């Protein structure tokens, strides 16, 4: 009976055991699947790490080679300078040894006392040059011991008088000057130069005996370094420096520990487009950013296509304010020198152009949907010319309309046949102006760029459809920076292509994605004076 009862109990538990076995088997399958997924992710991660490691290694090797070349140039330049100083001192020593020995009390004229001072200075100079040769790994040259001599008649050779006059002058920092392109602008990772002229109180040149130092400081991160100074003789010095960071720099030039005239100098360092590799920051939380512009404060104005307003941000991405909340689908945005902003609102029956004051208040609204003058059909890009006229791309009407800053209609430019070599009529989507006042237009139908004068005269056309470097697919927006480079966003290739004004391809950056340095439907684009590029991603917000 006990056995039968135990058997019945076991039979009652059998379904539970089978169910438990089934769950364990299913869990094992899940574990195996998870293991496979982890292994696949591990392989993908390993491949990504290897790829990134190779890329970073190539960058480091390139920078290492550049630094090695730069260091060799600096060592060679300093060595030549030290040897030239040695030759000058040796010539002075040889002249001194041909004169009779005198003491300070026996010197009667001012010139003779200056010669004694020159003797003391020359000894110190020889010691300094010898030490610097040792630090630079340059073999020091034997220099004879110096003693001061004079003839019994008190006559001095003309050569020694010249050396005395040259070395005994005292530089006046307020009379010293510096000039050259390197004091106006510079490029990152490129050598810039300028010259310094050392003068005395009468503005006459002083020799290299004067102490000169040049300090370069990046104001955005407070990183400083000394520039390379080469003595060219006759009071002239050449200064070379190679900035690593873009933005405003301060160059301090001092002679005998005092600032020269104009010091410190303010220099803008620009990063050329071919050095753009990765994004520096992401500004998110914007509802469909489409158009972008800089206002006179240096802040960003971004049109929210899906948010129906204009957002003002500082360059760090911090929200400043919002305005134009009555807009429906704001597309492009442009600003004038007075701080006013102009926005195209492409929203069917609400199609219009809106002008805002610097404080974000509506000053005027103009336009409606249609084909007549002053009417629009899907208006997009707009820009202000050097004549302070507002040019608007009336995209689906295949024309550009020109208005005054008060939104008064001036004329219309029909650009359907701007380039007869193209297969289709031009459909303008955006435009920009270069410093010469010429107009560059993105043709979204032919996937190219047209260049015209403001009167509508055709100048050139470049690029065509494709995804290879130099080709375009869906050219959306275009911007000309202050160095004459054209930045074009491509919403089909999900990248930015850069061209010269003559149409020559320079570089490209961006790939499809939502991560760092990736783009998804890039739209508006603008650059600042430091070379930073700001790109609106419509789908990544």
> Percent of residues in helical segments?
10-25%
Low-confidence stretches: 98-107, 136-168
End-to-end separation in angstroms reads 77 Å
Largest sheet: 6 strands, mixed
Taking all residues together, what is the mean pLDDT?
Answer: 83
What is the number of helical segments per DSSP (H or I, 4+ residues)?
3
Q: Kindly state the number of beta strands.
A: 34
Rg to the nearest angstrom? 36 Å
Strand content: 25-35%
Shape: flat
Structural class: alpha+beta
Write the layout of secondary structure elements.
Elements: H1 2-97, H2 110-135, H3 158-167, E1 177-179, E2 185-187, E3 192-197, E4 212-218, E5 223-226, E6 228-233, E7 236-241, E8 247-255, E9 258-259, E10 265-270, E11 289-294, E12 300-304, E13 309-313, E14 319-323, E15 330-335, E16 341-345, E17 352-356, E18 362-366, E19 379-384, E20 390-394, E21 399-403, E22 409-414, E23 428-433, E24 439-443, E25 448-452, E26 458-462, E27 475-480, E28 485-490, E29 495-500, E30 505-509, E31 511-512, E32 518-519, E33 522-527, E34 533-537
Helix pairs in contact: 1-2, 2-3
